């Protein structure tokens, strides 16, 4: 898709759809692609591959648009659904200041023959060298006055958040998306009676793994007569790990050197090719590092919950196996940074019966409802003194399950 700049808007154009981003208010308005003709003197800034959402780093800051700048193809599931990994993002401030250098890929239509080192700018900005000199002089004069502490703190806070945000997307390589395939739901969920494939992706996806939902909420809430205008721009992004390996089963290896070709029927069978997929989806609820996020919260969300699905694809057949993991479903915590600090129950030494039922309803019953038949394994090391309360609690929970 192409990114255009006008005096009042940044405009994303993707064939029949366009997204108008107001540079003064930061609001997003989806329109038809043909509406680009009504924009005054649009200049193409380059290509991007999607929108993650928008963010405001500080209450006094302007909105900024998160764009997918670079991506790589992980593979094609069922030979038709392309799955991409996000490699780099671009942060585009929605303000009337001169646009920042995004280093986007050039558009072959509008940037034919332009070298990467050349800067794309609007005609009225050709006097930028003179303006730059003036701004340098003006800035030097302003720097004579000491900056207020509030401004310094604000700039420091923005820089810290911005660095962490860019680092999270550009260095961790843990964010994935697909334009057509629902990465948030396992094959089992997608073939259930409750799953409505006719709905847009963001309306039928598993909300637990919809990582950019908050960032794209404005478009989710957008109301207009043509519903599909906003739906086109809302693509759920998952965090986790996805990999595809192409394998081959060669039956000729089963034939001994002294065997004749007619001894085994399998010797004439062509090698079978199949794909193995590994998809790990991390929940956006109660996510955090191991030492800081433990147990449950008031909504029943389990800390560091991950769903891992293994898919074997022998087209057109797909076979799936799902495992989930999460923190112990109790209100508990661990203090300190030493190895294996003793767990501590945060809400008393013994849970009353009604609390046990609430716990089961919010976590274990939800697991069974989502994944149907489930085998539960408890990976807990019990210490004779520190964990006697945990031992009593889990014995009580086990009795409720049985």
TrEMBL record:
This is SAC domain-containing protein. One of its GO terms (molecular function) is phosphatidylinositol-4-phosphate phosphatase activity. One of its GO terms (biological process) is regulation of endocytic recycling. It comes from Lottia gigantea. PROSITE patterns: SAC (PS50275). One of its GO terms (cellular component) is clathrin-coated endocytic vesicle. InterPro entries: SAC_dom. It holds the Pfam family Syja_N. Residues 166-380 form the SAC domain.
